[in-house]
Design brief:
Ubiquitin-like (UB roll), alpha+beta, rod-shaped
């Protein structure tokens, strides 16, 4: 199959190469795993250019994951908690992931259970806008939790 081929069909390699040579084009293998292998007679440089163009277009259309971080302490009061909750809801509405983290300073690491409760409450309050990807994890002096936006139908 190609640009100026009168009839599609199965041709011996020598005949296909001869047809490609007569037209000043290349014989390009499209699918080598098929039985028989599928080849086309076309300009190989033009084919490569089109493949690169398609790949670039696919890369451009791919969505990028944006992660927004919201930090608070284990003893954050209610007003600040609601304020951060509002921002997290906005971020999830934009389609960004939210990384909620509690930073423990000094001896406040003793309140790790309180921080975990706060993160779980944060996830429960955001259930309408996003879902928790994992449970709160303590890494050093920081406890983190990822919340992904829910897909809109």
């Amino acid at each position: 199959m190609g640009e100026n081929i009168p009839e599609q069909g199965i041709y011996p390699i020598a005949a296909a190469l001869k047809m490609a040579d007569e037209q000043g084009l290349d014989l390009v293998e499209i699918s080598g795993k098929a039985d028989p292998p599928v080849c086309k007679i076309l300009d190989y440089q033009k084919y490569l250019y089109q493949q690169k163009k398609k790949a670039k277009e696919m890369k451009q259309n791919a969505s990028k994951v944006v992660i927004k971080e919201i930090r608070f302490g284990p003893n954050t009061d209610e007003h600040d908690f609601q304020f951060k909750l509002k921002h997290a809801r906005e971020f999830l509405g934009e389609g960004s992931k939210v990384k909620a983290s509690i930073f423990f300073r000094g001896r406040s690491i003793m309140f790790a259970d309180q921080g975990q409760k706060q993160l779980l409450r944060f996830a429960v309050e955001l259930e309408d806008a996003g879902r928790a990807e994992n449970m709160p994890v303590l890494e050093g002096k920081r406890m983190t939790m990822m919340i992904a936006p829910v897909k809109k139908k």
